[in-house]
Queue: 3 jobs
Job 1
Amino acid sequence: MTPPVIRAARPDEYDEIARVWMESWVSTGLAEANDALLSNLCERVRHEIAQGWSLFVADDNGTLAGMLALHISGRYLDQLFVAPGYQGRSIGRHLLAFTREQMPDEIWLKCARGNEKAWRWYEREGFLYEEEKINPLNGLMMKYYRWKRVRG
């Protein structure tokens, strides 16, 4: 498989991005797919963009293989999700490499403690665990990670 094209998301894709986000989140086992969740994510995509998200997609010849939301000025990787049908195909690595191009010196993120597959992946990718805190919005325990470029 050739790597997907990582590009800025278009407004006409926001609902499809929310669907990819939901299906990927559901694949962690931490939520169940339903219309309310999808509706909330559709609304959140638009709200977060208005609040400063830079939203990107992994485009596999017109199919959205993943989504990436960054707060570049804050060096924050807010969301990185790969569509279930594309998991295990290095899409996440491509999205993370793109993130490192956008924020080459430092990146921080938080990941649900219950999403062990994700936080173990970030650890393998060089992110260092810093702390845990409860997310007041959803009650989930979140693990905070940071990656810094090694100079020298």
Job 2
Amino acid sequence: MNEEYTSTTTLTEQTVENERDARTEERQNTFSYDGYQVVRKELFAHLRDPAIVIRKDSITFNTACITGLEDVVYVHVMFNNDLKRIVVRGCDENDKDALRWCIAKPDKRKSRKMSCKPFAELVYKEMDWDSECRYKVLGYRITFEGETLYVFDLLVPEIFHERQKRKEETVAEQPADQETKPVDTRKGFYPDDIAGTFGVPVEEHLRESEVRQMDGYVSMGVLTGRTVPDTGLD
């Protein structure tokens, strides 16, 4: 009795395994990336991912960002008008347009608020952003020509309402029967064209993931007019 049961069980398991192998082979032989979209990283929890927060008068790189470029205290910040991206790379303190992006102590480094109203205003204008909001953009750590960079795609921002200061005159003018729901400044949201989609097609994702050359990027100093571009002439 037991031998018959064992034999039947073994046969059933073998049949299931054969069917699974057949399905696997069929999917392998017919697989294609056509029609697939790479789901945006932004649609998942990303509290520990590198990111930049842009306000109308400042930018701040989070701790994960600072940690990702070990021992880097000064950086070049570059902006690309066509791609709508910000690129950050490490540099030496005395390099032209070098910017200190963190507070460096003997035992640790931490992020710092970088005041840059002229630069932030240009970015807000370029992106047509709401001045009453702050924008958080995830950073992608890549290697380009042997150098580690962060790439921030400004077309995919998480948006947060900034906390508004209460004005007595505004409250007084508000009708008594009008109720307003407080805005949650800690809860972010995405533009409709991003929130309503999974991501982009695989081929487009591959193209967007590549930084083939640095042409088109300009430093923050040049962009804001803080320094005069080097012409190469003495």
Job 3
Amino acid sequence: MSPRTANMAVAVHPLLAERWSPRSFDATHTISDEELFSLLEAARWAPSARNSQPWRFLVGRRGDTTYEQIFSTLMSGNRLWAGQSSLLVAAVAAERLEDGTPHHGAAYDTGLAVAQLAVQAHALGLHAHQMGGFHPEQLRSALGIPDGYRPLSITAIGSLAPAELLPQELRDRETAARERRPLADTFFAESWGNPLTVRHDG
């Protein structure tokens, strides 16, 4: 068990319990073509409403032009660490269906695809850190994203490095205890705010 394994209320699959979002990545690590295809395939097979598959991804490997363009759109706090990752992946959602009507579930479905990519990264012994801290219009301009497609997130993927390599301001966050809101504050039944009662004999 990893020291970063979440303190779950009940046992869940290790891929979920052990998944976390580091900031310290090994700047010498590269991802193989086989690993990259595995990540992309995991995202490709995410569920979506009416199999509309609204997600599109811009994928940059450290050192290539796409990576540098994606990196340039990150907000300053994320630029402190994300440039050490092996991949930067920008997730974009199609805002309309093929018939031209609005796709109200596009962001939701694209989020599912990113989640599958993140879990697959962990299955490969890698780590993924999803970011909302970027400038969408800069990304749109830098990479020619057309109208009707909405940039949603950027994910850094790579191999874990020691927290000590981070700037001091980020080290404490890297090693802090992992926490989540209690179940009773999140899952309701009968009415809003009324905690769902779940019996657990463990």
